[in-house]
Amino acid sequence: MAQSVAGATNSANTSAGAGMAISKNLGVGVDIDIVDMKHCFENLIVIDAGANLTNKKYSRDLESVIQRAKDAGVQKIMVPGTSVKSSKEALRLSRIYPDIIYSTAGIHPHDSKSIIEEPNTWFEFEHIAASQECVAIGPCGLDYQRDFSEPEAQKEIFEKQIHLACRLNKPLLIHERSAQQDVLDILDKFENLPPVIVRGFMGTADEAVEYLNRRFYISLTGYLCKDKSDSGVRKLLENGTLPIDRLLVETDSPFMYPNTRASKLPQHVKTGITERSLLYLHRYCTFQRNEPCSLPAIVEMIAAFMKKTPDEVALATAFNALKLFGLS
Known about the structure:
This protein is an alpha/beta fold. Helix content is 42%, strand content 12%. The two termini are 33 Å apart.
């Protein structure tokens, strides 16, 4: 089996701190060779770029969930806000767990109509987004797979959030489902976008290329266990379309449980997952409630698809997150 990427111990905090100190003040445009950073880490870290810890499924044992994540090697967790209420709660968590949890402020496409119906709530949202602990705007975008909010309402609130991200100079997290062209048309209206991250990408390799050609980042989840197509996420990894310096990883907990027992998952990917990662995954995570501690297993599967070592993927994705979001 591959060497474990999740084997972070207490000593990892020291080595990770060294890398974070170097990355702390990096601007978005700074270009540093990942290989040059390798000496900073004795034990590698992984960073969860999206875990919905404001979800009520964690209301009784959040402290244990966070501790399990740390024990598994997850050193930082991005908690997205998807409404005014959850953005406020994500900000609260980032203050309770400083240096571990970082919040984002977003109005999910599904929740767009709430801002249309109660426009005064936008001012509270702007205040939350401007907080120091809030490191990105979003997830925002367009979702045409469900009709919780009308497309025109989604577009209006999406553009408002892009303007806000540009004004605050904070990265922009994109949620897109069956709406790529409209998303790109709206983004193309803006000349000086901050860094753009497409969260929980589930599209085709061709759709990914459209994003990558614009220098956007792509974040992957345990969805790769479900992807059975010949032109989707797996192809994106196997044929080298997705550069490792444009990749982030997230669990999207409590959703997107990575089913490592999936029948269509290639055998070399299954054997690439370490016993330690499987222990955390199978002991603490279920289809009903995924946890951030599943991230090392996801990283190891991505590494197997990309024909890279887990260490390489862990280091690159952690570095990308540190740089993008200015994590300390």
